[in-house]
Specification:
By secondary structure, the chain is an alpha/beta fold. It contains 6 helices and 7 strands. Strands 3-2-1-4-5-6-7 form a 7-stranded mixed β-sheet, sandwiched between helices.
Length: 194
C-alpha cells in the first residue's frame, strides 16, 4: 500500500477521487497528509472534512518540513501548480498527472486549460492524460499510464477538459496501483535516457 502526501493548489477534485477509491477498495493507498501552496484552497477544506491532516506551505522547503513529520513513500501532485523540489530521500517518488498525451502539449506553460485550448486550436482528434514520475524538468519523468479520449470537431476547451478529467479519474488510481505492484524503480529503469 502506498502512503501518500497529496499536494494541490485548487479545488481538490483529484483528492475527492482518491478518497472515494480508497474507501471503495479500488485504490491501494492511504492519504497521510494534504498540502497546498495556496492558503484557503478548497482542497484543504475537503481534506479536513475527510479527516486528513491539511496544511498550507508556500514553497518546497516548507512542504518538505511537513512531509518529514509523516510516514510517506509517495508524493502525489494533484493539480499542484508550482514547480516542486522533493527531499533527497523521495526524489524519485513524486507522481504527476498531465492533461495531454506526453510528449504532446507539455512542458513549461502547458498546464490546465492552456493545454485544452492548444489541443482545440491544433484541431486534434484525440487528447488524453499522462501519469508520470516528476523530475526537475516539467513533464519529462518516466510515464506510468496514458489514457486517450476521442474528440469531436465542435468540442470546446471546456468539453475537452471534461473528457480528459474523466480519464484522469481512471488513470491516476491505476498508476498508483501499478507503482504499488511493480515498485518505483521498475519505471525509472525502463525509461531510456539519451
Amino acid at each position: 500500500m502506498q502512503k501518500m502526501a497529496v499536494l494541490l493548489s485548487g479545488s481538490g477534485r483529484t483528492l475527492d477521487n482518491f478518497h472515494d477509491r480508497i474507501n471503495d477498495g479500488t485504490l491501494r493507498a492511504a492519504v497521510e497528509v494534504v498540502i497546498s501552496n495556496r492558503a484557503g484552497a478548497l482542497g484543504l477544506e475537503k481534506a479536513a472534512r475527510y479527516g486528513y491532516p491539511a496544511f498550507h506551505a508556500p514553497d518546497s522547503r516548507a512542504t518538505n518540513e511537513i512531509i518529514a513529520r509523516y510516514d510517506v513513500n509517495l508524493i502525489v501532485l494533484a493539480g499542484y501548480l508550482k514547480l516542486y523540489t522533493p527531499p533527497a530521500g523521495l526524489r524519485r517518488n513524486v507522481l504527476n498527472i498531465h492533461p495531454s498525451l506526453i510528449p504532446a502539449f507539455c512542458g513549461a506553460g502547458f498546464y490546465g486549460h492552456h493545454v485544452h485550448e492548444a489541443v482545440r486550436a491544433r484541431g486534434c482528434k484525440v487528447s488524453g492524460c499522462t501519469v508520470h514520475f516528476a523530475n526537475e524538468v516539467y513533464d519529462e519523468g518516466p510515464i506510468i499510464v496514458q489514457k486517450c479520449v476521442a474528440l469531436e470537431d465542435d468540442d470546446t476547451p471546456d468539453d475537452i477538459a471534461a473528457r480528459v478529467f474523466a480519464a484522469e479519474c481512471e488513470a491516476y488510481p491505476e498508476a498508483i496501483n501499478l507503482v504499488d505492484d511493480k515498485g518505483i524503480d521498475y519505471f525509472w529503469k525502463r525509461m531510456q535516457t539519451p
